[in-house]
Design a protein that fits this description.
The protein has 249 residues and is an alpha/beta fold. The chain contains 13 helices and eight strands. The chain has helices at 26-39, 50-58, 60-67, 77-85, 95-109, 122-133, 152-162, 175-187, 198-203, 211-215, 219-226, 231-234, 237-245; strands at residues 13-16, 19-22, 44-48, 71-74, 113-117, 139-143, 166-170, 191-194. The strands form two sheets. Strands 4-3-8-7-5-6 form a six-stranded parallel β-sheet, sandwiched between helices. The longest helix has 15 residues, at 95-109. The protein is globular. The relative contact order is 0.15.
């Protein structure tokens, strides 16, 4: 039942490798996140790429976290390709695009954003650049993600003091989602979302692929050329494609 004043969202859930992907546009996802903030209760947003879905097949804890998320967006060309093959009207909604839009909305509406993750100094640099891009963007804290799981609660307590509306965690899958789930009762951010390498992009340390590379669906190759360490993610792509083509997705 829809309550008076409550915004209604219709969504088509598309199953893929045991996970339901929300077939929403970028605008719809941002609107859904705005509704989460208004509810003032913790919500988890997962930006699911092909690698993450393969990891979830073998990591039961991570799979349960993704399956119980409040919103799961298709954050890779592979996921979009797999769902479109099955007739689902889906478009890519990436972590980078969401960070950009949420920071723009923060400048307009004052949402409090905390940036967590990446190497020392990266989150701070990303925050400064985002505030220059969107004057008034309310980034209220930034911290690197180089700490052991044993320190999760200590870090969470530090973040909780800042009282963020949106927590953006850039520590890679599944670490970022496991941190969010384990500490949600401490931080209590209305929205917490894993954003992978997004802070590296916004800090300027990693260049996003040119438009023509994105349109050619080769952004994964661009990232691999710039950083060969990304091979640990790319190696999952053949398995993902095989499962989709064999109809096992």
């Amino acid at each position: 039942m829809q309550l008076a004043g409550q915004q209604h969202f219709s969504t088509l859930g598309a199953p893929l490798l045991g996970v339901i992907i929300d077939c929403l546009t970028l605008d719809q996802v941002v609107a859904r996140i705005e509704a989460f903030i208004a509810e003032k209760q913790p919500h988890l947003v997962v930006t699911a790429d092909s690698t993450g879905l393969i990891i979830a097949r073998h990591d039961q804890e991570f799979r349960r976290i993704v399956q119980s998320a409040d919103l799961v967006t298709p954050d890779s060309v592979g996921v979009v390709w797999a769902l479109r093959r099955r007739g689902f009207p889906v478009q890519r909604v990436s972590g980078v695009d969401l960070v950009d839009r949420l920071c723009a909305a923060s400048a307009d509406k004052g949402h409090r954003i905390f940036l967590l993750g990446a190497a020392p100094g990266v989150a701070e640099e990303a925050g400064e650049r985002l505030k220059l891009k969107y004057p008034g963007c309310n980034i209220i804290g930034a911290r690197h993600g180089y700490f052991p799981t044993e320190s999760d609660e200590v870090v969470a307590a530090e973040i909780a003091e800042a009282k963020p509306d949106i927590l953006l965690v850039a520590m890679g899958m599944p670490r970022q989602e496991k941190f969010i789930r384990a500490t949600r009762g401490i931080i209590n951010a209305p929205v917490a979302m894993g954003v992978g390498g997004s802070l590296d992009v916004f800090s300027g340390r990693t260049k996003r692929a040119p438009g023509w590379v994105q349109r050619a669906k080769l952004e994964w190759l661009w990232r691999l050329i710039l950083d060969p360490r990304k091979m640990s993610k790319v190696k999952h792509l053949p398995t993902f494609a095989w499962l989709v083509l064999r109809g096992k997705a």
